[in-house]
């Protein structure tokens, strides 16, 4: 890989090491200085100057070509690097270059390029692109992974992909960085004998459409399924979807459900009942389960126990950690649920939750069992700033969370890709997110201090906190008793 400008002395050795180069990454947005592993525009120009394409392939043994551009001229420059040895091709276009992209893809077959991995991201689309794409895909009989723009799931494209014998992963828009305001994915369907090798599927679609598709038989037995659904969550349709998935895809090891509607004026206290998701408990092979929505899931300790009993091997769990910013203060999980999840799921390593800032008191003492499972990643999404009654109270919360994390664990407050792509947030909401991220960043630093401290120091902090918490409980008890006596005297 080239990362920066090549000098005259480099070209004297170029012919000796050119045959060892296997990958090239170019980003037009960085024309002068290449980042690590990314070809700069200057180095690209130098290659064309010192190694004219008339002499043959510049890099004859390339296997991977990644090209990110925003205009047609820069996209055309990929052609000298499309050699028969290329297996992985990724084209990311941020401008209107669909027609040029088709011209580039049409050279694959004449040059005997048989890809195993093809990924295309385009900001805009044309009918000509959709019409030309099936013919390009027909010749790619060795494709294992394909990632196409969201709008490309036309009936003809899907039918072409369904006949590819080696295709294991079919994704729509998984690495697009922008919003596509289209109703797409509705032409995806199963046919007899289609997608015989498919293991991983990612669709952008409507809730009604995916319920129809997942209710049909026969279907390939998927390992991983991602559904980006841009509808208002209708509870009946949601339960129907979960029932269809549990009936047809019970062997799933990874399930990602993303619900983000563009409807404004939603009731901020509305939630998704866990009962709507309960049919998914029949998917007992799950190792990863993520659900993201503009609403919060309503569940309790009994629901956590139910999940833990049927998903003993679950390693990553995300339960609507990043709803819209103006959700009511009465929804979300108590801070102590971090301990409930960690102690219930013995294999859990990554957890994402949305907290209720009015319920942050961890009545139980800080655990000291060093043999309990620990998390490597804990994400609080768009959770609000916690209440801070006293300095010792917030310190207790810090040590409580640290007790369930690995020594080098990552505590963060991040929005999911679906939240960023599909929700159009206001300036006010962005300011609120920034405030919350600042709080959780400070909280994470305190957690790091506890995690990096010695065991002796941690035990001292824990003992001190227990004393402070006992004092706090006594003061709160006295306050409640005083209030009761006052109420009695009034009556």
Question: What do you see in this structure?
Answer:
The chain has 491 residues and is α/β, with parallel strands linked by helices. Helix content is 35%, strand content 16%. It is built from 14 helices and 16 strands. A 14-stranded parallel sheet has the order 1-2-3-4-5-6-7-8-9-11-13-14-15-16. Helix 3 (72-76) links the parallel strand 2 and strand 3 (88-93). Helix 4 packs parallel to helix 5 (127-138), helix 5 (127-138) runs parallel beside helix 6 (155-162) and helix 11 packs across helix 14 (455-490). The longest helix has 36 residues, at 455-490. The chain starts with 7 loop residues before the first helix and ends with a helix.
What is Rg?
27 Å
Give the overall form: globular
Uncertain segments of ≥5 residues (pLDDT<50)? Answer: 181-185
Please count the helical segments. Answer: 14
Multimerization status: single chain
Quick one: biggest sheet? 14 strands, parallel
The secondary-structure element order is HEHEHEHEHEHEEHEHEEEEHEHEEHEHHH
Task: Kindly state the number of beta strands.
Answer: 16
User: Largest sheet, order of strands side by side?
Assistant: 1-2-3-4-5-6-7-8-9-11-13-14-15-16
Residue share in β-strands: 15-25%
**What is the mean pLDDT?**
80
Structural class estimated from helices and strands: alpha/beta
